[in-house]
Amino acid sequence: MSASCIGIVADDLTGGAAIAGEIARPGQPVPVIRLEKTCPLPAQTLVVETSSRYMPGAQAAARVEQAVSRLQQAGFTLLMKKIDSTLKGNVATELAAFARATAGRVVIVAACPTMQISVREGWQWKAAEKGVDVAGLVGDALGWRPDVLPLATVREGKTAVSAWFRQHASPVIVADAESQRDIQQLVDGARQAGIDGFAGVYGLGQALAGLSEPAMPPPPDGAHRLLVMSGSTSRANMAQIDWLVAQGAEAITIDVAALCGEQHRSEMARLSAAIAASRSPVVLLHTDAKNSAAVVREVCRARGWNDRDLAQALAAPFAEAVRQLPQAGLFLVGGETTGALFDLQGWQTLRVNGEFSATVSIARVPATQHPAIFTKPGAFGAETVLHDVARWLLPHL
C-alpha cells in the first residue's frame, strides 16, 4: 500500500463523506465504509464510519479502537480521526481511544476555516467568540493536558513546525490554526517530523492529501428528480429549506408526534400517499424544524431520546420515499439522519466521487439506481445550497 493512502475514522456518515469529498478526484473515488462491513479494506484512501457519536462512551471508544485496528491490519500507516467541527458527541473519549490505538503521536487540528472556526492557544473560537478549551477537553479524557503548538510557530512554516515537534515530546498535541494555509503548514511540518496520526475536521483531509482544492465531477446523465430528506434542526438548514421551498420545491412535512405515537400507521400512510401523489421534480421530506422544534423536543424528552434515537424514528418515512422514488437523486442532510436511513436500507458503502461545495459530497451507493447521492452535515452550506444542487443535477429545472 502507498504511504500516501489515508485511513480515516469518522463518527458519522456525513462527516466522513465530507472528508472523502475534499480528497476524491476524477477516477479516484473515496469509499466511506461502515464498520459493520466485514470485507477486506481496499488499498486506497478510505473512511471507516463508526456511527459512534451518540453511543455510550465506552462503546464509542471500543468502536474507534476496532476501526483503527482494521486499518492498521490492512496496512494503513497514515491515520486520521474525523471529529465534529463544534466538538459534539464523544469527541474527547474517541480522541483518547484513537491516540491509544495508534500508539504513535497524534496532532489534533480542531480549526475549520470554512466555518470560521479557529484555534488559538488551544481554545476553539467561532468568529470572534471564544468557545471550548480543546486542550483541556482532550486532557480530561487522557488524564493529562496535551501540549499546544502555537500559531506563531505555525506561521513560521513547516521547518519551524517540524523542529517544534522534535523539541516537544508530548504524544498528543493540539495545534493552533486559523487558515487552510496554517493547516497545510502544520501537517507538512508534522509529517516531516515523522508523525502519522492526525485528528480534525473538514479541511484536514485536503491538507493530508496535499491537494490545493477539492474537485467537482460532472453531473450524472439521466437524472429527472431530486429527493431531499432532512432531519437536521440547525438554523443553517432551516434557512436552506426555506430557500428551496421558495424556489418551488414540493414540501412534505412529517408530523413527528404522530409518527412516534399511537398514530404511527396513519401518519406513515399519509406520507406514503403524499409521496406517491407528488409530481414535482424536487421533493422535500422534512420535519419542519423551524415550526416543530418544541414538539420534537417534548417527544424526545418523554422518551429519553437523543439525536440518534430520533433519526432512527424518522428513517421509516425516509425509506418509504426512497422505495417510491428508486431512480431519483438523493440529498441527505444530517449525519444521524443519513446513518439511520443506511441502517434501514442495509447500505454499507458510500462511494464519494467529489464535492459540490464545501462539505457537500457527491456520491453513489453501489447496486442502487440513484444517479447521485449528496450528503452534508446539517450546519454547513450556503443558504442556497439545496436549490443549487437541484439546478446542477436537473439542468431542465
If you had to describe this structure to a student in words, what would you say it looks like?
The chain is of the alpha/beta class. The protein folds into 2 domains: 6-209, 3-Layer(aba) Sandwich (Rossmann fold), CATH 3.40.50; 226-393, Molybdenum Cofactor Biosythetic Enzyme, Chain A. The protein is built from 15 helices and 18 strands. α11 packs across α13 (307-324) and α13 (307-324) crosses α14 (335-345).
**Beta-strand residue percentage:** 15-25%
Q: Reading side by side through the largest sheet, how are the strands ordered?
A: 9-10-5-11-4-1-3-2-16-17-18-15-12-14-13
Task: Based on the coordinates given, report the CATH architecture of the largest domain.
Answer: 3-Layer(aba) Sandwich
Let me know the average pLDDT: 95
**Largest beta sheet, briefly?**
15 strands, mixed
Rounded to an integer in angstroms, the radius of gyration calculated over CA atoms is: 21 Å
In the residues, how many domains can be counted?
A: 2
Pfam families: NBD_C (PF17042), SBD_N (PF07005)
Protein name: Four-carbon acid sugar kinase family protein
Family: Belongs to the four-carbon acid sugar kinase family.
Domain Four-carbon acid sugar kinase nucleotide binding: 227-386
